[in-house]
Automatic annotation (TrEMBL):
InterPro entries: Centromere_Cenp-M, P-loop_NTPase
Name of the molecule in the record: Centromere protein M
One CC-aspect GO term: chromosome, centromeric region
Protein location: Chromosome, Centromere; Nucleus
A Pfam family assignment: CENP-M
Keywords from the UniProt entry: Centromere, Chromosome, Nucleus
Location (main, coarse): nucleus
Keyword Nucleus listed: yes
Domain of life (superkingdom): Eukaryota
Keyword rRNA-binding: no
Organism expressing this protein natively: Ptilorrhoa leucosticta
Signal peptide: none
Length: 131
């Protein structure tokens, strides 16, 4: 399910499936995109930041067109203890790899991967990224 911002409308709460993962998409070419994500973060329950939120930054292949400093997004990920994924949606290979990575994250967050919790997975990602 996609939403352009949070909070989600309450009139369909009874029809909404369980939310296992929230992916905040940030278009590196749009300052509005970052501001919208920052405003939406206030509507996410704190427990979701324990492995069920990530930031997906798109458009990173066009450095000349960037309106957002990538460090600002990385700091956002650090502040919310959530991974930041960078991708270029116009390149098919990267788009497919990113979709597969998000699908794997969703499987873990939904509890469909025995022996791996969302929290342990995110801690592994943080150690792997090696900031």
């Amino acid at each position: 399910h996609l939403a352009t911002s949070l909070p989600l409308p309450s009139e369909r709460d009874h029809l909404r499936p369980r939310i296992d993962l929230i992916v905040f998409m940030i278009d590196i070419k749009s300052k509005y995109s970052l501001k919208n994500v920052e405003a939406s973060l206030a509507y996410v329950d704190a427990s979701f930041f324990l492995g069920k939120v990530c930031f997906l930054v798109t458009g990173v292949g066009r450095v000349n067109a960037c309106s957002i400093d990538t460090n600002a997004v990385c700091k956002l990920g650090e502040a919310y203890c959530s991974p930041v994924l960078f991708c270029e949606l116009e390149l098919e290979g990267i788009r497919v790899a990113t979709a597969q990575r998000l699908l794997r994250m969703l499987q873990i967050c939904a509890g469909h991967t025995p022996g791996v919790s969302a929290l342990s997975f995110v801690s592994l990602m943080r150690n792997f990224d090696g900031d």
